[in-house]
Amino acid sequence: DNKPNPDFGDINPIFNYFYSHIENRDLCEYRKVLNLLTKFMNEFENCKIVCDDYQLEVVYINNDDICGARYLNAGRRKLMNLFVAIATQMQIANFYNQKFNEVPGIVLIDNIETFVHARWQLKLLDVLSKYFPNVQFIVTTHSPIILSSTHANCIGMNGHYCDCYGLS
């Protein structure tokens, strides 16, 4: 039997979820998401995400450091899980679309800043919008960094819009 047998463990449940939806399909779907995930994570730091088609152990390579995805810090895991969760839903809903990440949708994210490094918070919404250009993101945050990196016409506070773009 040539079927992959993934075991991502409890630390990366979203990868298990993703794989359970593509296990009967061609693994190229899995590779497409991992390739896009590597590009997404490279927006934050120089890295590479690789996996063997039959073991499906996700390995994170940053410079010369090699680490299993389950051993990454919470911020990196959160970004990877967030990306894979969105990509999974888009592939499920739009399986035959070659550019699954360009289909329209709405994504709700509560406390988007949790575990994410301040430098990464500064560009998180722009990077998500870059990789999912037709998705409307509705997020909650307590982070002034997230607010300062967001265009004013995108921020709503208690039904009122405010001018918050930039650090001023």
Counting DSSP H or I runs of 4 or more residues, the number of helices is: 5
Structural class: alpha+beta
The portion of residues assigned to helices is: 25-40%
Mean pLDDT, rounded to whole units? 75
Oligomer: single chain
Topology, number of strands: 7
- Share of β-strand residues: 5-15%
Overall 3D form? globular
Query: Low-confidence parts lasting 5 or more residues at pLDDT below 50?
Result: 1-11
Distance between the termini: 60 Å
What would you note in describing this structure?
This protein is α+β, with helices and mostly antiparallel strands and 168 residues long. It has five helices and seven strands; from the N terminus they run ααβββαβαβαββ. The protein has helices at residues 13-22, 28-42, 74-93, 118-131, 144-148, and strands at 48-50, 59-62, 65-68, 105-109, 135-139, 156-157, 160-161. The strands form three sheets. The chain has a three-stranded antiparallel beta sheet with strand order 1-2-3. It is globular and about 45 Å long. Mean pLDDT is 75; it is low at 1-11.
Task: Describe how the helices and strands are arranged.
Elements: H1 13-22, H2 28-42, E1 48-50, E2 59-62, E3 65-68, H3 74-93, E4 105-109, H4 118-131, E5 135-139, H5 144-148, E6 156-157, E7 160-161
Parallel strand pairs: 4-5
Antiparallel strand pairs: 1-2, 2-3, 6-7
Helix pairs in contact: 1-3, 2-3
